[in-house]
Automatic annotation (TrEMBL), chain A:
<comment type="similarity">
    <text>Belongs to the binding-protein-dependent transport system permease family.</text>
</comment>
<feature type="transmembrane region" description="Helical">
    <location>
        <begin position="123"/>
        <end position="145"/>
    </location>
</feature>
<keyword id="KW-0812">Transmembrane</keyword>
<dbReference type="Pfam" id="PF00528">
    <property type="entry name" value="BPD_transp_1"/>
</dbReference>
<feature type="transmembrane region" description="Helical">
    <location>
        <begin position="53"/>
        <end position="84"/>
    </location>
</feature>
<dbReference type="InterPro" id="IPR000515">
    <property type="entry name" value="MetI-like"/>
</dbReference>
<feature type="domain" description="ABC transmembrane type-1">
    <location>
        <begin position="61"/>
        <end position="249"/>
    </location>
</feature>
<keyword id="KW-0813">Transport</keyword>
<dbReference type="GO" id="GO:0055085">
    <property type="term" value="P:transmembrane transport"/>
</dbReference>
UniProtKB/TrEMBL annotation, chain B:
<dbReference type="Pfam" id="PF08402">
    <property type="entry name" value="TOBE_2"/>
</dbReference>
<keyword id="KW-0067">ATP-binding</keyword>
<dbReference type="GO" id="GO:0005524">
    <property type="term" value="F:ATP binding"/>
</dbReference>
<dbReference type="GO" id="GO:0015418">
    <property type="term" value="F:ABC-type quaternary ammonium compound transporting activity"/>
</dbReference>
<keyword id="KW-0547">Nucleotide-binding</keyword>
<dbReference type="InterPro" id="IPR027417">
    <property type="entry name" value="P-loop_NTPase"/>
</dbReference>
<feature type="region of interest" description="Disordered">
    <location>
        <begin position="303"/>
        <end position="323"/>
    </location>
</feature>
<dbReference type="InterPro" id="IPR013611">
    <property type="entry name" value="Transp-assoc_OB_typ2"/>
</dbReference>
<dbReference type="Pfam" id="PF00005">
    <property type="entry name" value="ABC_tran"/>
</dbReference>
Length: 264, 341
C-alpha cells in the first residue's frame, strides 16, 4: 500500500463500505428493544429466539438448504463432465459448447424464470420445487464449468498421460488421477454454487409457491410487512453460517486456491 | 540384432505442418537410441507416437514385432518419463512408483519390495513416504524414472529428461541414466536437442531435421563422418569450403590452425588445407582463443573461417595475430571432412 496512496485509500474505503452495513445489521440484531434502530437499545438475544421460533423462516430455511444442496449437486454432476469434455476431449466447436454453458451468466434471470414458469409449471404441471431446481441448476452451471475448468487448466495433462502409460484405462485414469487433481476445484465450485443458490432472489421470487418458498424471498416478504429486529437476527444467523462455511473452506482448501481458481 | 520397435513410413501432420515425414526407423533392443535435432524437428511427436499418445496420420509402428500403431498407451507396456516429470501430486513417492504395479495387481508385499528396489536404483529409497511437492527437481526426475522402470517396460522413453536440471546435475544424470540402463538391460529411447548429451549417452544416434532422419549411426561415426551439412552444422562443425568439383569440405574450429605466412608454426602441411586468409578478429572466450578469418574457397566464394585453440596450448605466434594480418588457415588431411553436398 505504501507509495500507492490512491489504491490504498480505495481499498480502505471498499472495506468500510462492505463492513459498516454488516456491523449495523449485526448490532441491531442484539437489541432488547422493539424497533430496528441504531444504536440498539440494550442487549439481548430475544430476537434470535423469535426468529428461530418463527415457523415461516424455519421452513423456508429448510427449503433453501434443500434447493441449494440438490441444485449444487446437479450442477457439479453436469458441469464436471462438460468441463472435461471441453478441455480434454477432441470435440469440434469447443468454444461454442463452452459459450453455451456459460450463457446463463448473461441471460437475465427473470427471462429464465419466466420461461421455466411457462414450460415447467404451467406446461408440464410440475411443482415449484422442480422448476426452481431446474432454474438453479442452469444458473449454477456456469460457475461449476468455470471454476472446475480453471483448476483443470492448471493441471498438467501429462499427469493423466502418465497414468495411461502405466496401464490405466481412461476410466481408471479419471477416477484415480483426474478426479483427485480436480478435488479443490470441485470443492470451490460447489461452495460458490451453494452460496449463489442460497442467496438467489429473482428466480425464487418468480417460481415460488405457497408450498415451497426460499428463505431470502420469505425474508423479503417479511420486511415488506413488519420492520422489526427479527429480520436482523435472521440475517445475522445466515451471516454466521456463511462465516462457518468460509472457515471450513479456508482450512480445507485455502482461499488462495478457491479464488485463485476463478481468476486464472 | 533384433528391433524393440520399428517405424515404417510413419507420417504425422497437423494441418499444413508435417511434424514427422515418412519416418523409417529401427530401435535396437537393449540399446540407448537418442533422437537428436533442433526444437520443432519432430522428436517429441515421434516419441509420443511410439508411446501411443498420438496416432500417426500414416504408416505403421511395431513394438516387439507386433503392430501397435493403433494400440492405446495402456496396452503398450512402455515406460515414459515426461519433460515435466508428471508425478501424481496426490500420491506419495512410493505410491507413484507403485502405481503401475497396483494396476498389474501385484500383491502389496511384493509391490512394496519392487517399489523400494526401484527407488534404490535411483538412490531415493529414503524418500519413499514423501509427497512429490517436497522433492527437488532432480529428485522428482528420479522418481519419474523409477516409476517408469518399475513396470518392467519393453522400452523406456525419455523426453528431454535433463533439460530442466541445472548444468552440474545434468552432466551427473547422463552417466546415471547410462548406469541404470546397463543394470536393467532396458531398451531406451531418449529425446534431446543437446548434441553433447547425445554424443555422450547414445549407442545409436538419430539426427533429425524437419520431421526427417538426416543420419543414423554410432556417435563416433556420426561425429567424425557427418552425412551432410546439416548434421555437421548441428554437431559443431564450421569452416565450410566448396571444392572445385562441387563437394563440400568442413573442419571443426578446434582443428583449424592459424599459420603465419612466415611459417614458424610447424610449417605448411604437405597435404591437407593451407588456405591464405585475412584475420578479422582475435579474442579470448573462457579457455579458448578464437581467431576469425575470411578466405576465398576453391569455388571462388568468400567464406568465414573460425579457429579455436585452448589457451594453454597457444603459441605466441597465434595469440599475437591481429585483425588485418595475412595468415594461412591450416588443417591436416584426417581433420578434413568431405560432405556429400
Ligand atoms: N498438437 C500439435 N498441433 C499442431 N502442431 C503441432 C502439434 N504438436 C507438434 N506440432 C508441430 O510439429 C512440429 C514438431 O513438433 P515436436 O515433435 O514437438 O518437435 P520437437 O520435440 O523436436 O521440438 C513443430 O513444428 C510443432 O509446432
Ligand atoms: Mg520436444
Amino acid at each position: 500500500m505504501r507509495g500507492r496512496p490512491v489504491l490504498g485509500t480505495l481499498a480502505v474505503l471498499g472495506y468500510i463500505i462492505m463492513i459498516v452495513p454488516i456491523l449495523f445489521v449485526v448490532s441491531t440484531a442484539f437489541t432488547a428493544g422493539d424497533a430496528l434502530t441504531f444504536p440498539p437499545q440494550g442487549l439481548s438475544l430475544r430476537w434470535f429466539g423469535e426468529a428461530l421460533a418463527y415457523q415461516p423462516f424455519i421452513s423456508a430455511l429448510v427449503s433453501s438448504l434443500q434447493l441449494a444442496v440438490v441444485s449444487t449437486a446437479l450442477a457439479l454432476l453436469l458441469g464436471v463432465p462438460v468441463t472435461l469434455a471441453i478441455q480434454r476431449g477432441k470435440i469440434p466447436g469447443k468454444s461454442l459448447v463452452e459459450g453455451l454453458f456459460l450463457s446463463p451468466l448473461v441471460v437475465p434471470e427473470l427471462v429464465v424464470g419466466l420461461a421455466l414458469y411457462q414450460q415447467i409449471m404451467i406446461g408440464l404441471h410440475q411443482t415449484s420445487f422442480v422448476a426452481l431446481l431446474v432454474g438453479h441448476t442452469v444458473l449454477l452451471l456456469p460457475y461449476a464449468v468455470r471454476v472446475t475448468g480453471a483448476s483443470l487448466a492448471l493441471a498438467d495433462p501429462a499427469v493423466e498421460e502418465a497414468a495411461r502409460g502405466l496401464g490405466a484405462s481412461p476410466l481408471r485414469t479419471f477416477f484415480s488421477v483426474t478426479l483427485p487433481l480436480l478435488r479443490p476445484g470441485i470443492f470451490s465450485a460447489g461452495l460458490l454454487s451453494f452460496v449463489t443458490s442460497f442467496n438467489n432472489v429473482p428466480l425464487s421470487l418468480l417460481l415460488q409457491s405457497r408450498q415451497f418458498r426460499t428463505l431470502p424471498v420469505t425474508m423479503l416478504d417479511y420486511v415488506q410487512q413488519s420492520y422489526d429486529p427479527m429480520i436482523a437476527a435472521m440475517s445475522t444467523l445466515i451471516l454466521a453460517g456463511t462465516v462457518v462455511i468460509a472457515i471450513v473452506a479456508e482450512k480445507t482448501v485455502g482461499f488462495a486456491k478457491i479464488f485463485g481458481g476463478i481468476n486464472k | 540384432m533384433t528391433n524393440a520397435a520399428e517405424f515404417s513410413g510413419v507420417t504425422q501432420s497437423y494441418g499444413e505442418t508435417i511434424a514427422v515425414d515418412n519416418l523409417n526407423l529401427q530401435i535396437e533392443e537393449g540399446k540407448l537410441t537418442t533422437l537428436l535435432g533442433p526444437s520443432g524437428c519432430g522428436k517429441t511427436t515421434t516419441l509420443r507416437m511410439l508411446a501411443g499418445y498420438i496416432t500417426p496420420s500414416a504408416g505403421t509402428i511395431t513394438i516387439n514385432g507386433v503392430d501397435a500403431t493403433r494400440l492405446p498407451p495402456e496396452k503398450r507396456n512402455l515406460g515414459m518419463v515426461f519433460q515435466s516429470y508428471a508425478l501424481f501430486p496426490h500420491l506419495t513417492v512410493a505410491d507413484n512408483v507403485g502405481f503401475g504395479l497396483k494396476l498389474r495387481k501385484v500383491p502389496a508385499a511384493k509391490r512394496r519390495e519392487l517399489v523400494l528396489h526401484n527407488l534404490d536404483l535411483v538412490g531415493l529409497a529414503h524418500l519413499a513416504d514423501r509427497k512429490p511437492k517436497a522433492l527437488s527437481g532432480g529428485q522428482q526426475q528420479r522418481v519419474a524414472l523409477a516409476r517408469a522402470i518399475a513396470i518392467s517396460p519393453s522400452l523406456l522413453l525419455l523426453d528431454e529428461p535433463l533439460s530442466n536440471l541445472d548444468a552440474r546435475l545434468r552432466v551427473q544424470m547422463r552417466s546415471e541414466i547410462r548406469r541404470i540402463q546397463a543394470e536393467t538391460g532396458l531398451t531406451v529411447v531418449l529425446v534431446t536437442h543437446d548434441q553433447e548429451e547425445a554424443l555422450e549417452m547414445s549407442d545409436v544416434m538419430v539426427v533429425m531435421r524437419a520431421g526427417k532422419v538426416m543420419q543414423t549411426g554410432a556417435p563416433a561415426t556420426v561425429f567424425t563422418a557427418p552425412a551432410n551439412r546439416f548434421v555437421a552444422d548441428f554437431l559443431g562443425y564450421e569452416n565450410f569450403l566448396a571444392t572445385a568439383d562441387g563437394s563440400l569440405l568442413t573442419v571443426r574450429p578446434e582443428h583449424l590452425r592459424v599459420g603465419t605466412a612466415g611459417g614458424t608454426t610447424g610449417g605448411a602441411p604437405a597435404t591437407g588445407l593451407n588456405l591464405p586468409a585475412v584475420v578479422t578478429d582475435s579474442v579470448y572466450r573462457g579457455v579458448d582463443h578464437i581467431v576469425t578469418m575470411t578466405a576465398t574457397d576453391a569455388a571462388g566464394q568468400q567464406t568465414t573461417l573460425v579457429s579455436t585453440t585452448r589457451r594453454d596450448t597457444l603459441s605466441s605466434d597465434q595469440s599475437g595475430v591481429r585483425p588485418g594480418d595475412r595468415v594461412l588457415a591450416q588443417a591436416r588431411d584426417h581433420e578434413i571432412v568431405r560432405l556429400a553436398a
